[in-house]
Each structure stands twice: as C-alpha cells, then as structure tokens.
Automatic annotation (TrEMBL):
The chain crosses the membrane at residues 30-49, 61-82, 120-139, 151-170, 182-207, 248-271, 291-315. InterPro entries: LysO (IPR005642). GO terms for molecular function: L-lysine efflux transmembrane transporter activity. It comes from Anaerosalibacter bizertensis. The keyword Transmembrane applies. This is Lysine exporter LysO family protein. Keywords: Membrane, Transmembrane, Transmembrane helix. GO terms for cellular component: plasma membrane. Coiled coil: none annotated. The keyword Transmembrane applies. It comes from the Bacteria.
Length: 316
C-alpha cells in the first residue's frame, strides 16, 4: 500500500502535463466528485457497522476538535516565526501589489466553481449519514468495504496529480515569489506534526492516530480514506473529522487569525487553500497574498498523499 500513492501521483502528473482539453478535465472532475460521494458513503458504512465507534462518537468528536484546534495553533506559531525571520509577507504583498500580480482571476474562477460545488458540500456529509443508516439497517456486521476504499483512494490520488500537472501557472507564480515560499508550507507541516505529537500525549491517544490525522492539514478526503484503509475505520474517522474540523474552525477564527499576522489565515487553511479555503482566506489576506495561499495550498495538497504513507511506514 505504501507505494500506491507515489505511483498514482506520478501517473496523474504525467497525464496532467499533456495539455488536456477542458472537456477531459471536466470528466476528471466528475469522476472525482463521484469518488468523493462514494468515499463518504463507504466511510459512513464502515462507521455504522462498528459498534465501538458508534458508542464512542462523543469522545472521538472531542478528541478530534482538540487535535484540529491545536493543529491550527501550532501551524500559526511556526508561520509567524517564518514571517519574522525568512519570509516577510507584508513586504511580499507590497511587491506583488506594485507589479499588479494577484490571485483575483483564480478567485473569480473559483467563485464560479464554488457555486457548482455547493451541492457537493452538502451531499458529502449527507452521504456519510446515509452510509451509516444503510450499514446499520442492511449490511451484515462482517461486511468488508476495503476494496471500495482502495478504488476511491486510487482515483483521488491520481486526480491530485492530474490537477497539479495541468495547473502550470502555479510554477510561474513560484518563480515570481522565489524559492523561499517553500518555507511557509514547511512551517505549516511542522506545526501540524508537533500538534499531533502533543495532542496524542495529552489525550492519551496512540501517536499514529493523532500525528497522521493532524498531518492531513485539511485534506480530509484522502486522509480519512488512507487512515481507514491502513488502520481501520475507527482511526480513519479521526483522519476525516480532524481535517473537516480544521477547515470549519479556520473559517470561524479568520477575523482573529488575521490580527495575529498576514500568514496566520493561510496557516489555518493549509492544504484547503488550494480549493475550498482559497476564497475566504483571500478575502482576509488580500488578493496579492491570496496568491501565496494558493501556492501554499497546492504544495501541501501534493505533499499530503506523500507524507501519509511515509508516516505510516515510520510508525510501523
């Protein structure tokens, strides 16, 4: 299983750089949406047939909330350190503004895409509930759903590679901002990693649960599916809930985060800055630094599918 993410990402990148037509990219998006709904149904079904999870949902939810909030907090701390030493985002914002380089076009495009995505945002949690109800009422307790998880995971990993390979503008933006931009996603990852370690110790959780779930950095679909596949549904529930909560609490805390520093909202959004978090984060940091958010989210979105199997191998 460890090598599958790397293979799928590589295949996706190779396909993505082939100047795919808009119609092909739309088909890829459709397949991803179908896979996401199927994934949520499968996770829900796995939860429903697990008596241990159903009887401990309250405790699991509280643990996930603590891990999510600490992941945001530590990512912000390390991002502020990077801002004050290596990457002064205030100066970068002024530089990009003087060159009239910003992320407005991407944000405007995403606003339109968000309208199309809005039903999916509701369908995904509903799918989990439907999966739970279906499994409780109709599935036998020993029903195995591993094959479905594997298929959906392969589709999602490959789609990440295609998305990154087809988005060549990101590489041009990185050239404009310079190589130091890489320190921002590194800071977010280190903060998430440390929060996972400390949360696991404080909550008395096995470190592989807290560390790997916090290292998902808002990428809840892949993190939840991967952790379910390799550890089982109870651990996979952490991977999903922690990263959904990270996005939720980041949006809730954006007015506070922007008062801490320009990079703090970006730190909270993490991998989500590539898609769902791009618009709300950009509204707070401004269109110039929205570009930084987009690049950071893209780097982390690519990194998460690589980081998860590495951490899994480490904890083995």
């Amino acid at each position: 299983m460890v090598w599958i993410p790397f293979l799928c990402l590589t295949i996706g990148l190779i396909v993505g750089v082939q100047n795919l037509s808009d119609s092909v990219l739309k088909i890829v998006d459709l397949l991803v949406n179908i896979a996401l709904v199927g994934l949520m149904l499968t996770i829900g079904a796995n939860i429903g047939i697990n008596d241990s999870i159903m009887s401990n949902l309250g405790t699991i939810g509280l643990n996930c909330m603590i891990i999510a909030l600490s992941s945001i907090a530590f990512s912000v701390i390390f991002t502020v350190l990077v801002e004050k030493t290596i990457l002064p985002l205030e100066k970068i914002s002024r530089k990009l503004s003087s060159k009239k380089i910003n992320v407005n076009d991407e944000v405007n495009i995403f606003e339109e895409e968000k309208k199309k995505m809005s039903p999916l945002i509701w369908i995904m949690p509903v799918s989990i509930v439907v999966g739970i109800i279906f499994s409780i009422t109709m599935l036998p307790k020993n029903f195995i759903l591993d094959y479905a998880l594997n298929i959906f995971l392969i589709i999602l990993y490959t789609s990440v590679g295609i998305s990154l390979g087809s988005n060549r503008m990101i590489f041009n933006y990185i050239k404009v901002l310079g190589w130091k931009i890489i320190f921002l996603p590194i800071a977010i990852f280190i903060g998430s990693l440390i929060s996972g370690i400390l949360s696991g110790i404080i909550l008395g959780l096995p470190l592989h649960i807290s560390v790997i779930s916090s290292s998902g950095m808002s990428y809840y679909s892949v993190t939840g599916a991967y952790m379910t596949q390799v550890y089982g549904v109870e651990v996979g529930t952490y991977g999903f809930m922690v990263n959904v909560m990270r996005e939720f609490f980041t949006i809730l805390l954006l007015p506070l985060l922007i008062k801490i520093s320009k990079g703090s909202p970006i730190a909270g959004g993490a991998a989500g800055n590539m898609d769902t978090m791009l618009v709300p984060v950009t509204k707070f940091v401004g269109p110039e630094l929205g570009l930084v958010a987009l690049i950071t989210g893209t780097i982390l979105t690519f990194a998460v599918p690589v980081i998860l199997p590495i951490l899994y191998n480490f904890f083995m």
